[in-house]
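Supplementary Methods. Inverse-folding protocol.

Structures were first reduced to a discrete structure-token string of length 160. This string, shown here, constituted the complete conditioning input.
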């Protein structure tokens, strides 16, 4: 073990059980925390934000720890649009049990509000939103109902 590893061990205390979001580009930790707090399932659990850790891949990184056995799928989808590329790890008995890298989703349902005021999803109760990925750079999604195209910055999440 070199001095770099021992420094990281000191800075990032291990957790026994929980979920960790790792490899967050530094500065995005706060943004992800704000998103997490908008999801009611996460509003009362213990969350730890760590910032500016040294990362071989990113230079500097942030990370978030959640004292929860599973992160809500809608939160993960939300996260995959806002900050694709982050790693989500499930920790059990101090070791990584499962690890996934979040990718930009092809389909986003029941999360985003359609910005088109005459879209049926904005006035018909019970009609839920669904968007398909059209382009990746920059991210463009198409509403399945009115078929209009929107950039990610135009799309707001609607959370209960
Ligand atoms: Zn629409």
């Amino acid at each position: 073990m070199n001095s770099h590893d021992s420094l990281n061990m000191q800075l990032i205390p291990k957790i026994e059980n929980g979920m960790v979001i790792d490899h967050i580009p530094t500065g995005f930790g706060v943004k992800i925390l704000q998103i997490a707090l908008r999801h009611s399932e996460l509003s009362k659990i213990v969350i730890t934000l760590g910032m500016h850790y040294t990362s071989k891949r990113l230079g500097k990184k942030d990370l978030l720890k959640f004292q929860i056995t599973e992160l809500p799928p809608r939160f993960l989808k939300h996260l995959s649009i806002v900050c694709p590329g982050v790693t989500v790890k499930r920790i059990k008995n101090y070791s990584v049990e499962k690890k996934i890298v979040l990718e930009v989703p092809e389909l986003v349902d029941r999360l985003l509000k359609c910005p088109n005021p005459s879209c049926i999803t904005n006035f018909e109760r019970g009609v839920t939103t669904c968007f398909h990925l059209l382009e990746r750079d920059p991210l463009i999604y198409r509403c399945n109902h009115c078929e209009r195209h929107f950039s990610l910055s135009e799309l707001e999440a609607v959370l209960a």
